[in-house]
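Quarterly update from the structural biology core.
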Amino acid sequence: MSLSPQFMESLWVRKSFSAAGHTLLVYDYLLTLRDESVYIWDAPWTIVKVLFLLNRYGNLIGQTVVRLEEAGLLAHDSQKFCQCFAIFTSCFMFLSVESIHILVLVRAWAIWGTQKRVTNILAWSYVIYVVTLLASTSYSLYAGNIQYLFLDVIHVCVTTMPKYVWLVYFGSFILDAVLFVLTMRSLRIHSREFQQLYPSTLLHVLFRDAIIFFVASMFCNALTIASWTAFWNNPKYFLAKGFATPLLSVVGQRLVLNLRGLKTRTYATRDLSREVDRQLQAFAEADLDDVE
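Predicted structure, tokenized:
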């Protein structure tokens, strides 16, 4: 069967971006393996540690499966496999993206302080949102009679996207924008309150990493919506799963590791007492809730 040059070019772009996303994820994993050993594995078991490890190693496994499929090593001309693969990658994408948001939310706000009620509302909003996405996506992919194109020739699962499927992802824009505004407000308030405790260079790093994370988050949302609308009948609709998801995971994991590695100068007795009281309360609310 003869395939058009435009189709083959789009397929090449899709495979290239998937390879780049997987390479970035593995490369950053190797770069940060020492930090993970020091700041994560040696730390007590908390919700932050569990979420970090699930996101980190879940992404490595999931993106490796995606990479093998994109290399044409898994499909074997099976429509059934492609249906299962579509469900897997959709669920994996939603879980990966939203879990890193919850992880950053819990970790960053535990350090800088915020109202527990606001944190819980945002965390549960992400949970409800991702559960809704998982249920609706799994049902539509399982119930729909989706045919994968040219499978016997290209050995890669390629289909078309429903034209308005991008609307289900619009909620992530809203949640991310709200989380960004509230996080920056929290950072601003507590950087003023505790500026005597933290060196200005560390405050700069924290602001920088927070901004980079949310810029990357909005970029990934935009790439997802753009690829699902502009390339709904083109192999490049897969750019969100193959490239945007690992990119966001790398940025989020970097932010958490940097927060774990923050070191402050020596405290005065009064400052130490005030800071310890505040962080103990924050971490107790973030971590001990899981034990109960």
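The chain has a mean pLDDT of 79.
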